[in-house]
Design a protein that fits this description.
2 copies of one chain form a homodimer. The first copy, chain A, has 343 residues and is α/β, with parallel strands linked by helices. The first copy, chain A, has a single domain, classed as TIM Barrel (Alpha-Beta Barrel), CATH 3.20.20.210. Chain A is built from 16 helices and 9 strands. Chain A has a 7-stranded parallel sheet. In chain A, strand 7, helix 14 and strand 8 form a beta-alpha-beta unit. In chain A, helix 4 packs parallel to helix 8, helix 9 crosses helix 10 and helix 11 runs parallel beside helix 12. Chain A is globular and about 55 Å long. Chain A starts with a helix and ends with a helix. Chains A and B meet through helix 10 of A and helix 10 of B.
């Protein structure tokens, strides 16, 4: 396993071909996924059901032929065990309650012990690892800033008003919450590694809404702490760090002790390589899967060519695959990357 | 008028102080605006009412003391005269119908003659210019890509699926629509200049969702054509070009014959200045107006210091002022820029 192309690419060794996985590859674009999702109850119920979560995790291996599976779960899975209720309201997204407003509110938030509080995640990983022997399994967590933005807003937001004003106007509350979340994320990721995942991705999905200063002073130090703790314990487990719209933060994230920087489609690879020597992941625009095949082939060709100059390159979309995507186009993408990506 | 600090900054001459205006400065954060808006009927009715539109345009001059007014209007004002119906549906944003799907659909779209089809815009400008004698009036239009994205989607979109797939899968339709829109925008902006605006801003609000290649080949040439036509006729009228999230496109836009590149808050000024020698506009995060005063002063200080290295600098927010903003904070921002921005 340790010589699998994804792990080699992450470590900056030379694999035989450019490996590919796809963000949200076990998702709504798949009819089989929708079927399993429908019988599971709520979305969070599916995340908490090891048999079904494992089945969903493995779907894209068979359906589209990706080189790795990613644990089917959600960034809110550990958050609900902190004592915050999550509800998915149609047309509105996640609604979190109670909304954290004070330092005292933060004190009430628990740091979940994964073995006791999240046994279904560990069990899901163990089930997947039994069935998936020839490809890596990716574990993941949301990063503190992205989680904090939901916890302070009580849900999704366009302007990140609560998160940004808290970091400016109430630095003590910000530090307490980010510190608490860093503990949660660290324990959660370590439990995934101990259960058997082969590499991890940290989703700081929304970091790109921050300017360099805010990111560097109010967010980066917490992610750095998480990464350093994990690397101190499990130096051999590669870490991928990803957020959309974050090309302006690459030179800061280059200082994180992670192995791979994920890129969205706006950040072209030559630019990224001028800011970091790390391996890269990405970065086809998810909408490209709605284009004619020759357009997909052309853009894959460009990305692979550009990625050759990187320390290592894991192919991926620049953000999650869109629910309306035709699965045959996802399969075509994987086949195209494998056909053009011989190294 | 031609020596006003905003015009000097745009041209790269040295004004006495850093001038400021604010995107959406005549907007919902103002109680007086909400009052006028309520008596006008629909939002589009307000745009079509010269007396009220002029009154709204001038509000922020008195209320917060900005250095320029911007015509109160909407990017859809010329679009409805192309033969597309616009409705603002609460919680959904603009809904456009019919949705353009074929080359034949494009052929039915009219190029409005501003004097005949948009007389209220010209009249609004003339009314404002009578009252506003000591500061410039900014005219504006949406750019073809931003307008095309609404026209092809039939409204707002998160993924720009229709616009992107049209540019890839149906390049003829894309070219016809973008060409038509370029004619519309050119005529519309020229009519504003002839009615008396002192400078113009082209809002290519959503260009930042495109990768460099798409932007360069499928969008830039149309904006270039508009700008070159206007500059051929009115070389003395400065042009500002702005879109959110478009730091990765600055080096392309540097080749536009515009005077000022607008920056959102993610794109730090030193980075922008490494990509363009043009004057810049921006770029305080609009959420900063919810922070404590000393945070606002500090960030204004940084932006002014950084802007000194630019050819010229017009202070602005990095995107529109948020409706929930306390007007006294907007006033404080303007005063702070004037206090710290002596040159």
């Amino acid at each position: 396993m340790k010589d699998h192309p994804i792990l080699k690419a992450a470590r900056g060794e030379k694999p035989d071909y450019v490996p590919i996985w796809i963000m949200r590859q076990a998702g709504r674009y798949s009819a089989k996924y929708r079927e399993i999702r429908a019988k599971a109850g709520s979305f969070m119920d599916l995340c908490r059901n090891p048999e079904l979560a494992a089945e969903v995790t493995l779907l894209p291996i068979h359906e589209i032929g990706v080189d790795a599976a990613i644990l089917f779960s959600d960034i809110f899975v550990p958050v609900e065990k902190m004592g915050i209720n999550i509800e998915f309201v149609s047309g509105k997204g996640p609604v979190l309650s109670p909304v954290v407003k004070t330092v005292d509110d933060v004190e009430t938030l628990k740091v979940p012990e994964p073995e006791e509080d999240l046994p279904y995640v560990i069990e899901t990983i163990q089930l997947i690892k039994k069935k998936l022997t020839d490809r890596p399994l990716i574990g993941f967590s949301g990063a503190p800033f992205t989680l904090a933005s939901y916890i302070l807003e009580g849900g999704s937001t366009k302007d990140y008003l609560a998160a940004k004003t808290t970091m400016w106007n109430n630095p003590l509350l910000w530090d307490k919450l980010m510190t608490r979340l860093s503990e949660v994320v660290t324990k959660y990721l370590i439990s995934q590694i101990e259960a058997g995942v082969d590499l991890i991705q940290i989703f700081d999905s929304w970091m790109g809404v921050l300017s360099k200063e805010e990111y560097k002073t109010k967010v980066f130090p917490y992610t750095e702490r998480i990464v350093n703790t994990i690397k101190g314990k499990y130096p051999e487990i590669p870490i991928i760090h990803f957020g959309v719209n974050s090309g302006h933060l690459i030179e800061i994230n280059d200082k994180l002790n992670v192995d791979v920087i994920g890129l969205d489609w706006r950040t072209d690879i030559p630019f990224a390589l001028s800011k970091t020597d790390k391996s890269i992941q990405g970065n086809l625009d998810p909408v490209t899967l709605f284009a004619e095949d020759y357009i997909i082939e052309r853009k894959v060709g460009k990305i692979i060519e550009e990625g050759i100059a990187a320390r290592g390159h894991i192919f991926n979309l620049g953000h999650g695959i869109l629910p309306k995507t035709d699965p045959s186009k996802a399969r075509f993408l994987v086949d195209t990357v494998h056909r053009l990506g011989k190294l």
